Amino acid sequence: MLLDMQFPSRLLALLRVFFPLMLVSSALLAQPAAKAASPVEHVLEGFGKGTIPLDGAWQFHLGDDPRWASPGFDDAGWEQLSADKQWGLQGHPAVTGYGWYRCHITQHATPGAPAEMSLLIPRIVDAYEVYWNGRLVGTEGRFPPHPRWYVSNQQRPANVFDLGTATGGVLAVRVWKAPLFSYDDAGAGGFRELPVVGNPADIASLRGSLDYRWLSQSQFRLAESLLYAIVVLLGIFLWVRNPRETLPLWMAGFALEVPAATVLDLLRLPISGVATVAWQQPMFAIQDLCLWLLLLRMLHLAENPNLARFVRIAAWVSFAEGILDGMLTTLPYHGWVVASDWFLTVLVSLLEFLPVMLVVWAVAARKRLSLSRWLLAATAFLAGSINDLSIIVEQGRQWTQWSFYDKLTAPMFELGGSSITPLAAADALLIFAIVYAVYDYTTEERRRRDKLAQEIRNAQELQQLLVPEALPEMPGFALTSSYRPAQEVGGDFFQVVPLAAGGAMVVLGDVSGKGLPAAMTVALVIGAIRTLAEFTIGPAEMLEGLNRRLCGRLHGGFATCVALQMQPDGSGVIASAGHPAPFLNGRELELPGALPLGIGEMAQYEEVRLRMEPADRLALYTDGLLEARNDKGDLYGFERLQELFERPVAAEAASDDAVEFGQEDDVTVLTVTRLRAGEEASVSQVATVV
After folding, report:
1. Is the pTM of this model over 0.70?
2. Which residues pair with 161 in a beta bridge?
3. DSSP character for 89?
4. In 3D, which of 301, 337, 344, 302 has the Cα closest to residue 322?
5. Of the candidates 506, 115, 434, which has an alpha carbon nearest to the alpha carbon of residue 290?
6. Tens digits of per-residue pLDDT, 623-668?
7. For residue 190, which of 103, 256, 127 has the smallest C-alpha distance?
8. Rounded distance, CA 118 to CA 139, Å?
9. Are 155 and 122 in contact (CB under 8 A)?
């Protein structure tokens, strides 16, 4: 417990030592800061004949003082930096907070030059204010204590500020650099590209050309986002049609991040950096976990319960990490926030290796996969490897000064003016592979469902032939029956077979299991009953014959059965093979216990004699009636069953009562009523196949 309480403080202490050491090493590796020098006059030769970049040396100073906006301020003691790259690349690595740029401008206008002058600033990291001769002329973002800046500032349009009358003076730019994220490099901060001055018309034309260049370079990204958006809509559509199949949902979740990011970047929405990161982190987590679940299913890895459990836990951890990481972004950068952010960064970086691990697992397990699934595995391995390497190099590069990340993210080639990086190419291959694999899977599943549906239709047709549409007459008795399968086809059976010597053999039973396999067993049982009825003498012999034919054919299953032989004079013989005993006039018959059919080849069954007087009622049923369960979880039970059979009730009414109570299994009921003298034998309109 003491160790647990001391861990956060020790971690903070370690970070306080570690970060300065890394910053020192970064400073040693970085370009040395420029020395102080007198300001350079930027002479605007030929003003009015086009735009003029403000290249050359600018005065620069870290810190913040409102007086530095004044044109009369003496900045001769400041160092000099260029405005074509950030201050972190010019001797101030990993420096955040405030910094000021000052540019002294002298104008040599040509005759007839416009009287107005405008300033175009392409990119500055992060928030900034622009002063012209001490007058605030424009801003982007907002400074502390309530800062607002844009993480995707490279996608932001260039800002244009009206400087008023074309004249010389001092241009001062106040910059605030936000705290570095884990993936930021040490070179961030300040100008990224040269600002440009000129007359308003020329500046507007330049901005238009920059926007056109940006749009032409974004064609691949736009096309990619459109493709991903179509994949999202397709996945949601397929999932809505069949909510039980989650694979299209995982596909849609994986593709969602790209069009969502497009909304933020390519539409150039003015969303703050904090809101962007807080929103994107959960989106990245969703993309990751959906890919993991896709690979788990498509590579047949869900067959391993331990691996499947690990992936699902990792998915929840990743999603929680994304939310927590996004929430931390909104908090002030205190020590515990920094420590927590780095812990979550290390955690998610480790989880990023999971796609590669899953592919390696599938290869090592020698999974037999289709071409589409191996293509998915190969592209997931390629994209995952490039992504993992990018993360390793990117995280912490603000201290390492590694340049390999720039090489890794450098364009391989251009397509329609758009630069294609290795990761972008690998991701494009991956989304095509996912769509192809899901399409192949859904096509295969549709064929399988169609085949299964046809088999079920065939089984239903077979069962309709096996379940009698009309019961034969039994002289001296009235018969009713009802058959309610729980699924398309069921495992209950009954037969009423007239005997040549008079009377009839009534057989009713239940095969273990449900659905199509149980229905196939029923077909075997019915065929055996009809054959044995021609040669057997009594119910026990009938059950023993059925048992011999079923042993070894039920694949570990069994069947319960009751056989009843009735004579016109009301005498009868009954035997049971593990089946619930019938009710005679509302009282359960006492039958000896016995093994179900199909368990032991040498099983024997005892007969019990009975006699039915006029108006006596005998009810045979399967356990689906007894085991009906309502919404509260209550069983139908013996008490309700006894109350049901204490009164004269037809088979259909009895089965309806169970179905209304809550049917879970096949329900079959058959009633035999002894008629009084003079009454004619009758049967119901037969068992209902539902």
Report:
1. no
2. 119
3. G
4. 344
5. 434
6. 888 888 888 888 888 888 888 888 888 888 888 888 888 888 888 8
7. 127
8. 14
9. no
